[in-house]
Fold these 2 entries.
Entry 1:
Amino acid sequence: MSNLNFARSAADIKRYRQRNSLRPIFRNYALKLLAHLVKSDSKPRLLFLSFHFTFESDRENLRNIMTFLAKDFEFISYSEAVQKWKNKEIDKNYICFSSDDGFENYQIAAEVMKEFGATGIVFICPSMIGESNKEKLAKFNANRLNGPSMPFLNWDQIENLASEGHEFGNHTFSHFNQAEISKKSAEEEIAKTHEIIEERLGYCHHFAWPYGKPNRIRRDTIDFVYNLGYKSAASTVRGYYTKEGPFDQNYILRNNFEPFWPLSHIKYFTKTNRYQ
Ligand SMILES: [Zn+2]
């Protein structure tokens, strides 16, 4: 049986995920070194950032990250960023924020973002919105998100964030790997989520698929999303956009970071596209 207690810090997440892996430790050192070595891309660029969770203890670190980003980038909403991506209109440095899974602690990130005049989009799974059953929460977090248990936003919190300018998008109903379920189930997961969000908030324009890699979704499921009238589908493939592109994919490239990460990691991801 999984641990029913909620994670309270980034250390709890790290402990959960590093039980069997040394990779994050090596990655940490590699990125610290690379951040010093690479030269910054001088072309105006548009970046989509994504993150998952923000704990109280990460507030100050997130402030430092935002202070660093504010020096180089204009913060814009996700919808504005999608518009610029569509129009290939990248005349200066822009950055926007997105958060997958809809954890309750997004509210902490939102408070910090507010200090900088920024907002974000949260990609939510309606099957977990406002769920209070601790066993269900632990199971979903372990099976679907590979993490320790954490609570999700409820509708009151979502509506409150929406009134503050945050947007909400479709992350499927149950967070399955879209390539492993049938085409029909994938479409039902997306359509059901669309209806629920649209009914509660009056809109739903953006989609991000679970696990974010191109092999976790069928191409025709992405087409299905656009046929529903969506303005964007987002991956977690790293990269950013300049006037020259890359515009050869119909999905958005996003750079994952977490608010507890050292600033050197963020510096690396925002100044070069070399990891593509
Ligand atoms: Zn997710």
Note: The longest strand covers residues 94-100.
Entry 2:
Amino acid sequence: MAHISIRNVYKVFGDDTRRAIELDREGKTRAEIQKETGAVVAVSDATVDIEKGETFVVMGLSGSGKSTLIRMINRLFDITSGELLINDQDVAKMSREELRDLRMRRASMVFQHFGLFPHRTVIDNASYGLEVQHVKKAERHERGRNALKMVGLEGWEERYPRELSGGMQQRVGLARALATDAEILLMDEAFSALDPLIRREMQDHLIELQRSLHKTIVFITHDLNEAMRLGDRIAVMRDGKIDQVGSAEDILVRPANDYVAAFIQDVDVTRVLTAENIMRKPRGTVFLADGPHVALRRLDEVQVSDMYVVDREGKLAGIVRDKELAEAARRGDRTLEQAISQDYPCVEPDTQLHNLFPLASEYTTPIAVCSDGKLLGVVPRISLLDTMSKFEGGENGSSD
Ligand SMILES: Nc1ncnc2c1ncn2[C@@H]1O[C@H](COP(=O)(O)OP(=O)(O)OP(=O)(O)O)[C@@H](O)[C@H]1O
Ligand SMILES: [Mg+2]
């Protein structure tokens, strides 16, 4: 069961909503419909399932319907047509009570301009969502304090928003959403008002938090780099329609249409794709227990000049190169001990491609991708160059 299920959802602003939807189904554009009926089809026939614990990013140009879509999830906007279910419960059919509960306890919003109360302390801001739920002061402060700790604002409880930087204020906004324990976070351009560096910091923070919290996050942005960093999946919207839903890689490598392709043109793929995304299986490996002759034969079989050495558990033990192996064989060595080298490039799977370039220029050996000491794959220099060439200008793309 999807956490949030959006099925053929329409939102039309205006009077003649029925006619507008009819025209939309006939294939008329938003502009044509507006001209004919005066109504704006803000969201058109949106269908998508958002899974529990995923970070789902909605992106698209201004006016594409992102905010309208997110606001239907907690019914700040009524749905004109279609169905929107949260845990299989139809949002349109919720009673006033259920709706209150949805907004206060189950789905918290984080806004672009923080929305803090200037005359309340940080702790009172962070625990505001609990105050409206009439949670007793001691408990709400306890939970507010915990939430502030999560966002790295321990010790700032008694300060006022004006004493905090923009990034810190946004963290209070995030803490307020976290304090309610809501399972869904709705974040509409939550980081867009921040400076590029602070914004990146907030993204890192959210990624880190999400690793342990596993909230269902619907995150709106018009920034593709942000979308690709944060999103498990990304929906691209245009003129109220969802054009494509997929992983960052899906969208980069297989854009659904020209609009999406144009969108990704200036994305910095070196900061979006990671070693894991482009790694290959090594052409071969040598076992630690092998001798120099066996190792040489393996190199010869696949025509390479070096190979990674792994132990029985698949842990990376080092690298052997043809020259040292040949010498060891000539000496009559029985083990690889004298031939094995620890001088090789090695990165974690989530290393961004731009961090691979220095290694690729220093070593001709494919870069080893390791996790917990295990060799997961390799990134040959040619794969790195090939990936870059697919995204012309990617190397010089924006990096904020
Ligand atoms: N309350 C409203 N009444 C009438 N039209 C509206 C209303 N809210 C939004 N719209 C229209 O619906 C369309 C989608 O707006 P929406 O705010 O969802 O876009 P958005 O993708 O969030 O844009 P932005 O990136 O600028 O925030 C726009 O054409 C907008 O003019
Ligand atoms: Mg918006």
Note: The chain has a mean pLDDT of 90.
